[in-house]
Amino acid sequence: MKIAIINGPNLNLLGNRETNIYGTQSFETYFETLQAIFKDDELIYFQDNVEGNLVTAIQQFGFNADAIVLNPAAYTHTSVAIGDAVAAVTATVVEVHISNIFARESFRQISHVSAKCAGVISGLGLKGYELAIHYIKSQAVPA
């Protein structure tokens, strides 16, 4: 399977930023772990801090990948455009959040993306990405 992992703003700082919430591992290091676990799949990683670039990536991968694991980060709570992009593509999209957004500030409990996704994994740390990929693979129709 071809699965794109798309991360939003500030996730390029994983391992350095608010380690009490997000942990001490960089996503690039974790991505190597994912590639080792899912060695028979093509995993693509994209991260950007700019909303429009994330919309473009969702559109690009949403029509040429089997699925997207999406962590829109802070844009979850503000971006109608990202939610609309998810609704427009044919790929299955699973939303992932490293922290439990429902146990944080009230504004973080609003999502403009979740209703457009196949599911949401929140609060399980980086492990949420692996679980999202397992779910995606479990839903795949054999060729």
TrEMBL record:
InterPro entries: DHquinase_II, DHquinase_II_CS, DHquinase_II_sf. CDD domains: DHQase_II. The record marks R17 as: Transition state stabilizer. It catalyses: 3-dehydroquinate = 3-dehydroshikimate + H2O. The active site is at Y22 (proton acceptor), H97 (proton donor). It is an enzyme of class 4 (lyase). The keyword Membrane does not apply. It comes from the Bacteria. Pathway: Metabolic intermediate biosynthesis; chorismate biosynthesis; chorismate from D-erythrose 4-phosphate and phosphoenolpyruvate: step 3/7. Catalyzes a trans-dehydration via an enolate intermediate. Homododecamer. Belongs to the type-II 3-dehydroquinase family. This is 3-dehydroquinate dehydratase.
